[in-house]
Amino acid sequence: MESREVVEEWVRRFNRCDAVAVAELYREDALHLPARQHCIEGRSAIQKMFERDFAVAGMTCIPAVLYEIGASVVLEWRDTSGRRGCGAFAIRDSRIAFAYWDETCILSDAKSST
């Protein structure tokens, strides 16, 4: 799979809340770095992180921008509850070697106060 295809498949599996299937896209020695948290090391630990996250929150990833350059992919996303964020993925041998994930909470009907 090309780098972009790996991330597109990641989104599909993530939206099914299938921690096992999501983790299969990571290399055994992968690193997953959620913003403001400790780095998660290894496929097994990444799977456990997704299992915990999926158990407590219904999450949806709606891609807004998907940008590929070589083996790197940047995903700008939103969800139905007003959250938005960005993910950066480094792909090696059709698997995720490194992922950085950040989100901000923005209410969809928020108005700017200028």
UniProtKB/TrEMBL annotation:
<feature type="domain" description="SnoaL-like">
    <location>
        <begin position="7"/>
        <end position="97"/>
    </location>
</feature>
<dbReference type="InterPro" id="IPR037401">
    <property type="entry name" value="SnoaL-like"/>
</dbReference>
<protein>
    <submittedName>
        <fullName>DUF4440 domain-containing protein</fullName>
    </submittedName>
</protein>
<dbReference type="InterPro" id="IPR032710">
    <property type="entry name" value="NTF2-like_dom_sf"/>
</dbReference>
<dbReference type="Pfam" id="PF12680">
    <property type="entry name" value="SnoaL_2"/>
</dbReference>
<keyword id="KW-0614">Plasmid</keyword>
